[in-house]
């Protein structure tokens, strides 16, 4: 009885192993066919024509001892399903992998080895069989299958020749063939393996990238879904056609809530776009952009992150405690910092159902650095994997993981000038330690200097001494600058260059400073690419006038603040810190009246996008006409005049880039004359810097 039980046990195990192997084998064949699919018709065409054609070559042009038209016609016939693969219906396509694995040994190794043996190992057929082997390696990348098919093909050919002739002749065989043949076999398999590995890495990269971006999209989409529900709850019921003339009232608190929801949703979308752009930049091997780095208060950022984290269950937030041992400031990007915290929390909450699970976030400031610890009471991480988890595509056996989260987190913290590493005790806890440099450290000053080198400041003052003093302070802070001695000169420079900060004297000859600022804020007669930028550019008035008078004048024209002369170095340092590195939102000049009454051509193939953008533009007093693709836009421009064109980049018939080139060329117009000057603004979801520069280049 025991013998039978043991025997049955081993039989069951062997059966399971065999079934597992067959499943893997079948999947491998399917993968090979899938990868070879684009080339199947080409190979089929080559075989169907090539087999009979080379009969003429080897009998008429370069005669060989043995040839067989019948065998070549059979091989050509076997190749027909390869040739007509794209036209097979689904039933036969599903059966094709079986035909593929049967026909490959006959089409390649069997034929070439048969001809090699029949021609008694002639040099021509030794070379031809090597070529056939290389072709086999190109079609089938798996070295085990290559070896099996090669051995099977040779065995069948040897048996066929032995059956037909009664013996196999080695009349022209040379020992040199053996190393040459094995070199082709092994070398070909190495090259094929490297190519396949690169292909798998690319597929893995694309899967991980798509998973990461899908995850980043899911959070804002869920937030917006909740926002829509919140807005819907504050609005009166949807009216029917019978109540068209009825007016509806909404409470002050309800209106305030709607605006808050819209602002939060907008911030959520902006954050998601920034994270996606950063991930794409990271995957392209570029450094994370530091130009948006600002001064951040750690406790406030963590509190905001915990409040905006997309919890799947309200109880999840109760599992998290914050231990603010000592608050600190650091230098970085708020949205990217959110991403790091979100990723660490998501990874920790994966184990939330374990008994006694909790997460603690601790802030502490040491003499040499600032520390953030995120500790959970999950299962822990083995010592040999604590660095691996920061590598691309390493998922630590989590089903939903894509292997990019912690890798990107490390890139983010590195860009902040800090470090992130993992400590753990298996079965008890895992702790991620983020070390950030002090805000006044040399490392942060170096980061700031790198950012400031890309900033450009305009100094406008009619007194040379004031211009020189300001330029000295600004150059010491590594910023580029231009000088203007009056308002007219300032306007010329403003129309030619993009400035990040402007110092503007009030009383100057030719044109006063406050008149120049009004011109800047009006956006009239300014390149549209600069006009929007100058609506928000910080402008600081500098004056010898009484401070009270200057403040009133400065506020009326759109200045952010006013400084009294003489300007001190500390004033400039405070300005740089406030307007370049502060997360405080200073005055925004929306100037909605600028676009009131403007005629706008909106070009987009998406009806929903056109509908909502038209609603927004009409709300600001614009007259909007719509076009569904580039050619439609060209026709609209020829019929009537517009002040600006909003152009989607990706569209059917004629995309945005093609349409813009066609408009700028002017060749399609007989009436429309502003084709070379009309502002055209591109609309695209690809907002990363590389894509933007590529689009602008067209």
The secondary-structure class comes to alpha/beta
Kindly report the average pLDDT value. Answer: 83
Radius of gyration: 36 Å
Poorly predicted spans: 586-590
Number of strands: 16
Q: Strand sequence of the main sheet, in spatial order? A: 2-4-5-7-6
Question: What is the 3D shape?
Answer: elongated
| Beta strand % | 5-15%
State the major sheet: 5 strands, mixed
Q: Helix segment count? A: 22
Cα end-to-end separation: 82 Å
DSSP helix fraction: 55-70%
Detailed description of the structure:
- With 698 residues, the chain is of the alpha/beta class.
- Helices cover 56% and strands 12% of the residues.
- The protein is built from 22 helices and 16 strands.
- The protein has helices at residues 2-36, 40-61, 69-83, 90-118, 123-139, 143-165, 177-234, 252-283, 298-308, 334-349, 405-415, 442-452, 464-476, 487-496, 513-522, 528-536, 547-557, 569-581, 607-619, 630-639, 656-665, 689-697, and strands at residues 294-297, 320-324, 329-332, 359-365, 370-376, 419-425, 429-436, 456-460, 480-484, 501-505, 539-543, 561-564, 599-603, 623-627, 644-648, 680-683.
- Strand 8, helix 13 (464-476) and strand 9 form a beta-alpha-beta unit.
- The radius of gyration is 36 Å and the shape is elongated.
- Mean pLDDT is 83; it is low at 586-590.
